[in-house]
Every structure is written in structure tokens, then in C-alpha cells.
Amino acid sequence: MKICKLLFLIVCITSCKDQKKTEILGESKSNTTKINKSEFQTIIDSNNVKGSILIYDLNNNTYYSNNFKWATHGNLPASTFKITNSIIGLETGVIESDSTIFKWDGEEKWSNFWEQDLVLRDAFQFSCVPCYQEVAAKIGAQRMNEYVENLQYGNLKINADNITDFWLEGDSRISQMQQIDFLKRYFNDQLPISKRTKHIMQDVMLIEKTTDYKLSGKTGLSNSNNQYNGWFVGFIEVKNHVYFFATNLEPIDNNIDLNDFIKTRKEVTLAALKELQVIK
């Protein structure tokens, strides 16, 4: 009898944990509305790319997308992980503050912007891969795994051998739906992080501020098996309204100009926001 009660208790605890994780991943929102937008597909087609634009209206608990199937498929997080990497770096003290300086080692880099000393905001905005590889290495695989698990960020495969590139190559994955779920919890103060970290990240993630809106987010780009995959994730605040977005694109063929593809990630997202009349 005692064994039966013990087994019953274990099953109940496991079930509760699984249910909590499902809710965190945004898979059990019974009142959530999903609306297919063919206009988003038109925007994508006109840019010679394929993929999905996903926008979530927080106030009305409504998702808009041209391809919800694509939006649930996992991809490498690429540099969108710099959001999480920054948070973990600040929480562990590896990144001391927003004035922390990443020293250039004097060697030639992929981008000219990386060939200088950078403070945190610039390292984030210029998407400095070497800077964040340094952060990840100092955090270490064990702590990184613990924080990623606590933050419920995607499905990442992290070990000592890939600690400096697990978000750029390999088997780590996150979907558009999971990206928005993470950003929503960040915005709503539902992540287990300090107010100080949240305050610093608000400035680090800010892309543009006008009289009409405030745009925050991060792009990402990976190249796996000669297939480029591009991200633009974030949120836009318009008066008292908040919209989250996660755009994931791939070139129809790899003959596309890489610079054009890099610009397309943000351009199609803004076009979709205009289609929804979020911005003019």
C-alpha cells in the first residue's frame, strides 16, 4: 500500500511539472486566437525568401502568421541567443555591468565593427560573435545549462566542447513560438532574473525609439549545410499596446545576395507590422 501511494505521488509530481512546462512553452492557451495572414506570405514571396512571420498581440492574446507550421519548427537560435547570453552573463557576474568593455585582440574579424573595443550595448547591437563567445566560455557549460533550463529557453544542446558555438551550429533548436514565449515572459517580469538585469537589457535591446513606438529585439543568422537561416525577434511598444514578433526566413536559393538577405529579416517584419496597422 505504501509503495502504491509513493508511486501515485511521483506520478502526480511529474505530471504537475510537465503541465507547468507545457504552459511555459505556450502550448495550453485555450483562449489564444491564431489568425492566418496571407498578406504576410505575399510580403515574403516579394522578397525572394521562404519562411514565417509570427506576430503576437499581447493585449488581445492573438497570433498572426502566414505559416504556423514553420513557426513551431525549431532552428538554430544563432545570434538571437545574445539576448539570453547577455542575461546569463549579467546574472552570473561574467558581464559586470552595461559599461563592461570587450577588448579587441587586434586580429582581423568577420565584421569591421568588431575590430574595436566595445561596451555591452555595442557588442550586442553589432552582434559581436567573439565577444559573446568569451562570455559563454566564462559562464561555462554547467552554469549555462542550469540557467537555460531555469529560463526555459528552447531546446539547447550544451557541453564543454561546444560552449562557444552551440547557438551557431549543431543540434540546438528554438522555434518562433518559443522565442515569443520567452520574450513575453521577459517583458512581463516572469523570468527568474534581477530587476537590475532587466533594466540593463531594456537599453541593450533597444533598436529604435520614436514618438510613435519603441522597437526592441535582435537579429540572428546561421549557415548549416549551406543553408542560411535568418531571425528577427523582439517586441514593439505602441502607446499601451505591445506586439511580439519572431520572423524566421531562408533564401529560396543560396544565390541570393547575403547583404540583401540580412536586411530582409527586419524589412519583412516591419512590413507585416504595417499590414496589421501597428505602425505607419
Topology:
Blueprint: H1 2-24, E1 33-36, H2 38-45, E2 49-57, E3 62-65, H3 68-71, H4 81-92, E4 101-102, E5 118-119, H5 120-125, H6 129-139, H7 141-151, H8 176-187, H9 195-205, E6 206-209, E7 214-224, E8 227-238, E9 241-251, H10 258-275
Parallel strand pairs: 1-3
Antiparallel strand pairs: 2-3, 2-9, 4-5, 6-7, 7-8, 8-9
Q: Describe the strand arrangement of the main beta sheet, using strand numbers.
A: 1-3-2-9-8-7-6
User: What is the rounded distance between the termini?
Assistant: 67 Å
CATH H-tier superfamily: DD-peptidase/beta-lactamase superfamily
- Rounded mean pLDDT score: 91
Descriptive terms for the model:
single chain, 280 residues, alpha+beta, Beta-lactamase, seven-stranded mixed sheet, two-stranded antiparallel sheet, 10 helices, 9 strands, 21% strand, disordered N terminus
Structure, explained:
The protein has helices spanning 2-24, 38-45, 68-71, 81-92, 120-125, 129-139, 141-151, 176-187, 195-205, 258-275, and strands at 33-36, 49-57, 62-65, 101-102, 118-119, 206-209, 214-224, 227-238, 241-251. The protein has 280 residues and is of the alpha+beta class. It has a single domain (32-275), classed as DD-peptidase/beta-lactamase superfamily (Beta-lactamase), CATH 3.40.710. The strands form 2 sheets. A 7-stranded mixed β-sheet has the order 1-3-2-9-8-7-6, sandwiched between helices. Strand 8 (227-238) and strand 9 (241-251) form a beta hairpin. Helix 2 packs antiparallel against helix 10. It is globular and about 45 Å long.
